[in-house]
Amino acid sequence: MRLLLDTHILLWWLAEDRRLSADHRALIADASNLVLISAMTVAEIAIKASLSKIEAPDDLLPTLEAGGFDELTFESRHAEVLRTLPWHHRDPFDRMLIAQAIAERLTVLTADPHFTAYGVELG
């Protein structure tokens, strides 16, 4: 399975937070799954951490690399999908993740109910 983690799912995983569901935890831990972290997620964490809105590891990139996560860059073809997305959700970072998931045919791990309106595969 090819998984794309929403930002809160990644942060819950890294913090071993109890809010991360057992199903999501199992999917991330399953070595047969490709677990992707969007460059947009890293950007969102950087911005929100610099504004003291969230707590995140200072060594995020080495932590992700050590954790076996793969990076999904944000490409022009992902941006093109944004043009056609309905405005069910206003969060720009989530919209970019949704666009990537659609373009790459990925399963998104999220607890955000807004994602269901886009018809993306959810895990």
Can you walk me through this structure?
- With 123 residues, the chain is an alpha/beta fold.
- It has 6 helices and 5 strands; from the N terminus they run βααβααβααββ.
- It has helices at 7-15, 22-29, 39-50, 60-66, 76-84, 92-104, and strands at residues 2-5, 34-38, 70-72, 107-109, 121-122.
- Strands 3-2-1-4-5 form a 5-stranded parallel beta sheet, sandwiched between helices.
- α5 (76-84) crosses α6 (92-104).
- It is globular and about 35 Å long.
Which keywords apply here?
123 residues, Rossmann fold, 5-stranded parallel sheet, 47% helix, alpha/beta
Structure, briefly:
The protein has 123 residues and is an alpha/beta fold. The chain contains six helices and five strands; from the N terminus they run E-H-H-E-H-H-E-H-H-E-E.
